Amino acid sequence: MKTVSLNVPVVGVDGKTKSKIQLPKELFGAKVNKALLAQAVRVYLANQRTGNAATKTRGEVEGSTRKIYRQKGTGRARHGAIRAPIFVGGGIVFGPKPRDFSLKLPQKMRRAALASALTSKLTDVIIVDGLGDIEKTKIMARTLVAVGATGKTLLVTSASNNRAARNIAAVDVIPVNMLYAYAVVSHQKLVFMKEAVKKL
């Protein structure tokens, strides 16, 4: 694949272009592997499942084990125990049991999937200088609108957290060292702090 220079504008908190920055071509100029990206998304979603659903079989339900009525002579169907699945309050046949849904993805594949995700979302990337100095939620919300981050937005920070953006609707905050493929593809806009790009 032919590599190209990835110079993108860096905007200030007022939305005006201040300078340009070159994005790492290994992450933003990679070949998009859709199959790998789909696999990374599937692994992430599978790992969010707790697998705690559980039901009791007829052997685990509390209740008497005696025969509920005699075998013959009643005119009714033959039954042995009140805990049978056919009765209300009885056991469940083939019900869910606790299980582990987690899947694993090798580190090289995770990195390649992240590169595919970032490359596919390159047109939605916004690099902003000065976001780290904002401490008020109201000012942060205004700034995100000014830079064009409308809709579901992922704010990639250089630090562990950014308090100013935590309570803004449709905005998720993630430190750059925790960035993963699903977070990238599940948002409409990607706002990177300028400092975060350097750490990427």
UniProtKB/TrEMBL annotation:
Entry superkingdom: Bacteria
Annotated InterPro entries: Ribosomal_uL4 (IPR002136), Ribosomal_uL4-like (IPR013005), Ribosomal_uL4_dom_sf (IPR023574)
GO biological process, one term: translation
UniProt entry keywords in alphabetical sequence: Ribonucleoprotein, Ribosomal protein, RNA-binding, rRNA-binding
GO CC annotations on file: ribonucleoprotein complex; ribosome
SUPFAM superfamilies given in the database record: Ribosomal protein L4
A molecular function GO annotation: structural constituent of ribosome
Subunit text: Part of the 50S ribosomal subunit.
Family: Belongs to the universal ribosomal protein uL4 family.
NCBIfam families per record: rplD_bact
Purpose: One of the primary rRNA binding proteins, this protein initially binds near the 5'-end of the 23S rRNA. It is important during the early stages of 50S assembly. It makes multiple contacts with different domains of the 23S rRNA in the assembled 50S subunit and ribosome.
Protein name: Large ribosomal subunit protein uL4
Lineage, highest ranks first: Bacteria, Candidatus Gottesmaniibacteriota
